[in-house]
């Protein structure tokens, strides 16, 4: 299974504030949709609950929670990251995107093969962070600067990282 973490992260590591995102980036949301379409997306229960529209269409939505009674309309529910991967495998997928939030990225990064990162080019106040991207583990393989459109609050840089070290995968 190829595991990709898809994230937008500020220069100081921030990814979220008060259950939402501390920026407005419609250009990046379009790109997020293109990059994740057709593959299962794995997310923590808090990220699921923060989605303005759920499930995200065209993708198997898998919500991770420790609550065994949790119901997520239009989504599958998993009780660990490994359980979520198994559910994706059972549906025939060979690639998944992990779409947050902080707790799930923290656990999933050690299984990930690839990071699909939108660097938000600012330091931003928040309460949720992405783990440090260690250059001894992650090699940048593509980079693209994206100026802010009229609707975007910030300019961004899109970077794909691939794992250098072995031992990834699940
Ligand atoms: N910038 C970005 O790209 C991006 C992307 C996604 C989210 N975000 C932001 O990140 C924030 C949410 O992140 P968060 O860290 O607070 O929450 P989260 O990772 O979305 O969800 C946390 C929840 O996941 C469940 N969970 C975590 N580890 C688990 C495990 N090992 N087994 C089973 N369930 C587990 C628990 O649910 P239960 O409590 O139900 O057991 C936990 O409360 C929001 O501000 C959101 O907007 C940003």
From TrEMBL:
It is an enzyme of class 1 (oxidoreductase). Pathway: Cofactor biosynthesis; tetrahydrofolate biosynthesis; 5,6,7,8-tetrahydrofolate from 7,8-dihydrofolate: step 1/1. The keyword Oxidoreductase applies. It catalyses: (6S)-5,6,7,8-tetrahydrofolate + NADP(+) = 7,8-dihydrofolate + NADPH + H(+). Residues 2-163 form the DHFR domain. It holds the Pfam family DHFR_1. Keywords: NADP, One-carbon metabolism, Oxidoreductase. InterPro entries: DHFR (IPR012259), DHFR-like_dom_sf (IPR024072), DHFR_CS (IPR017925), DHFR_dom (IPR001796). Its EC number is 1.5.1.3. This is Dihydrofolate reductase. It comes from Aquamicrobium zhengzhouense.
């Amino acid at each position: 299974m190829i595991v990709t973490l898809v994230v937008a992260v500020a220069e100081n590591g921030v990814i979220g504030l008060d259950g939402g995102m501390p920026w407005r980036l419609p250009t990046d949301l379009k790109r997020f949709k293109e990059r994740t379409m057709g593959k299962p997306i794995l997310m923590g229960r808090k990220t699921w609950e923060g989605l303005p529209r759920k499930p995200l269409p065209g993708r198997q939505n898998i919500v991770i929670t420790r609550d065994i009674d949790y119901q997520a309309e239009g989504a599958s529910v998993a009780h660990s990251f490994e359980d979520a991967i198994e559910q994706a495998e059972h549906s025939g997928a060979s690639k998944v995107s992990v779409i947050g939030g902080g707790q799930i990225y923290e656990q999933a990064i050690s299984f990930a093969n690839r990071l699909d990162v939108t660097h938000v080019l600012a330091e931003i106040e928040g309460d949720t962070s992405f783990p440090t991207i260690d250059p001894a583990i992650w090699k940048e393989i593509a980079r693209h600067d994206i100026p802010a459109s009229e609707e975007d609050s910030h300019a961004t840089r899109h970077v794909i990282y691939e794992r250098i070290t072995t031992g990834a995968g699940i």
